[in-house]
Amino acid sequence: MDSATSLDKKGEKMEYVYAAMLLHSAEKDISEEAVNSVLTAAGVEVDGGRVKALVASLSSVDIEEAMSTAVAAPVAAASPAAASGGAAAEAAPAEAAEEEEAEEEAGGFEGLGSLFG
């Protein structure tokens, strides 16, 4: 599979997550019917199994918390200590620890990751 095809496949998978995020943002229930409607309106060929899996995996995820964690992670990576050239070697272990903590905090996404392999 070439890189363009790989990107297309990843983009297709993300449309389902985007549909759920749109529903959440609009304060609507994230149900199979609602996700199907959003995807159909966007002209996406809907895979019912993927929709069902997405809705099931999101039932145990606090979306607000997950989004705030996802937004905070890039800010931590762009800290001034990481930007200074001389301290880069010293900051590397600290950054690795921060990344591990971010992965642990994002535990709710484990189910989502398995959906999109």
How does this structure look, described?
- With 117 residues, the protein is an all-alpha fold.
- The chain contains seven helices and no strands.
- Helix 4 runs antiparallel to helix 6.
- It is elongated, with a radius of gyration of 18 Å.
- The N terminus is likely disordered.
Features:
117 residues; mainly alpha; Arc Repressor Mutant, subunit A; 75% helix
Sequence-ordered SSE layout with sheet pairings:
Layout lengths: L2 H23 L6 H10 L6 H11 L4 H15 L2 H4 L4 H18 L4 H7 L1
Helix pairs in contact: 1-2, 4-6
State the gist of this model.
With 117 residues, the protein is mostly helical. It has 7 helices and no strands.
Number of strands: 0
Number of helices: 7
- Catalogue the unreliable spans: 1-8
Biggest beta sheet attributes: none
Task: Please bin the fraction of helical residues.
Answer: over 70%
Inertia-based shape: elongated
N-to-C order of helices and strands:
HHHHHHH
Protein structure class:
mainly alpha
- Beta content comes to under 5%
